[in-house]
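Box 3.1. Reading complex inputs
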Amino acid sequence: MAREEPAGEPERRGPHGGARDARVPEAVRSASGGARPVPARAPLPASPGELRDRLESTGYLADDGLAVACHLALTLHRPLFCEGEAGAGKTALAAALADVLGAPLVRLQCYEGIDASQALYDWDFPRQLLHLRAAEAAGVTDAGRLEDELYGERFLVARPLLRALRTSPSVLLIDEIDRADDEFEAFLLELLADYAVTIPELGTLRAETPPVVVLTSNRTREVHDALKRRCLFHWFAHPGYARELAIVRSRRPLVARRLAAQVTAAVQQLRGMDLVKPPGVAETIDWAEALAALGATELDADLAVATLGSVLKYREDTQRAVALDLKGLLAAARGS
Amino acid sequence: MRGRGGSGTDRGGPDAAGPDPGRAEAGPDCAATGLAGPGAWGDGVAVLVGFARTLREAGVPADGERVQTFLGAVDALGTGRREVYWAGRVTLCGRAEDLAHYDRAFAAYFGDRTAPPPRPRTAPPPRVRPTAHAAAEAPGDDGGRTAPAVPAAARAAAAEVLRHRDIAGLTAAERAELHRLRTAFALRGEQRRTARLRPARRGAVDPRRTVRELLRGGGEPAALRRRTPAHKPRRVVLLLDVSGSMSPYADVLLRFAHAARHARTSGAAPATEVFTLGTRLTRVTRQLSHRDPDAALAAVGTAVPDWSGGTRLGETLRAFLDRWGQRGLARGAVVVVLSDGWERGDTTLLGGQARRLHRLAHRVVWANPRKARPGYEPLAGGMAAVLPHVDAFVAGHSLAALERLAAVVRGAAGA
């Protein structure tokens, strides 16, 4: 499906293809650990409004602020730092942006102890050794050439960050940066400053066009200010009823409209209940899907209790919801 | 944008600037060039920079680099009210807490010359600080001025503060004591194994370094290189009760916190986090990061609105866990609560939250200054509810007791 483009002409090409991949499930989109094949690149959106419309055509509903933030990230080449509640659409944003731009999505999942050899590049040592042995057996004597071979592209294992730098254009998702440690943050800061990396054996590698970088954080800790300063900041809160319903409808078009409306209303009420973990949009979608899978077209108390596990993930919360006012909650949800 | 012949001053154009088609030209440095071209902007820049200054006075960290990005963003978006609002919000704010300050400062600084400010749909959830912004609506209507001279937003921020703590200064004796505290307490958490590996003499084989060594030797077998998990002190979280019943101790405990925050013996240790509990939760880590203890304590005195007020220990503990603890700050950390456990009325909430804290944290240390009093029994209300969920219960009434507390946190002394 990818149209081949001449390498030297990154922009200004034919009409963009409208809603591509609009119905690709979230799991499929984000499961690809590295660059995936994508459709032809699209021209940059000219205004926040256009960007929002195009995000919408991929099934991602952004509000004004987010559209402006994304627009600025594209025009100013600044990383976009997305912070907010879990399940509010931070990770999905990167996938949607990749769709809009027709650029491959490169994802780096952060975890404690992640370092340059896991995030940037590594050498394929076993194959280097094999190559060395083979060269010796063949009687190669030109040591200089052998070394060049050993530390050449052939044995370089590109990790997500390097892949993103070498793929132009691309969307780089650095997911859950708050899980990584300070050392990695400092390393990232350096990389995001000039979108270039120096590999001692190969030289400096600079991105042809800087990748669009989306960083997400669940605020498990405060990310260092120096890194944030480089970035544009956007806070993701839980959406209001109308927008959340639109998101559920667009993400799960097969769920009955009535059911989607009731589930959304119920979740909105649950959020007001002072829970240990208020449900996010992702949970709303899960709940609607779970109920639809059971053949429901309307939310009733028995089914709600049976499927409550897809919205509330703490025992205390479930108990509270069941014991207190699930009935009243459903009545209110049905009424709306 | 800067190639468009100085058309940057048209106000309120819905789309004053599209993205530059020449991507190579627009770079991270275009903000700087936007600033350098005064002809295109005139005193528009001054107005925007003045706004940033107002924001800084309201406590939003809108520093120079952010301001440059802000100017670049306005340059790219246009100078309509909505555009400036979002450009600033995205570039000048860095934390969720900043957003409320930002909205107020924006309304105060730009007044309502045109449409009312866009109701931010993405305001942070207020359930974390239930009453913090109660006074938010009142100020700000007196704005309407474009001159950056009078920081109306600073007044807006000040109105929120309920009660200041009076720190007139410290006596010489107190300073000497502070110095002693500083050296006595290196409040480091006990060691924990991290996921990061470091070279070592023994441990698992490190393929990377071993093979590199092999290659260096032309493929000849060389010594095996090994690696082992690095160790790192656990994070320490101090929860400081500043309610009325603790007021005789609050001052010295705060200095203890300052000493603990700064007595960092190695760069690897995560910074100690400090919160105050009273009728509400305040994070004072940032205020305490002043090197100068006087400045730090003065900053804390301004930041904490409920000094020597009432106590809602259960609720504030829950606020801490909801907003910070459960997300990760308390996970695997050594949490030290400095409180007398005094709670009015029902203590079931406090007990439940203490249980929650205990499940999250590596160790919970409760330091109660009243423990050392003769005849003290932790039977009364809050303390009795909390004790089953506490790993170590120590006194905290004197320097010696605080030194012992530091030892418990290090894992040196038995619980």
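In summary: Strands of chain B lie at 191-200, 204-205, 226-233, 236-241, 273-277, 281-283, 334-338, 363-368, 392-395.
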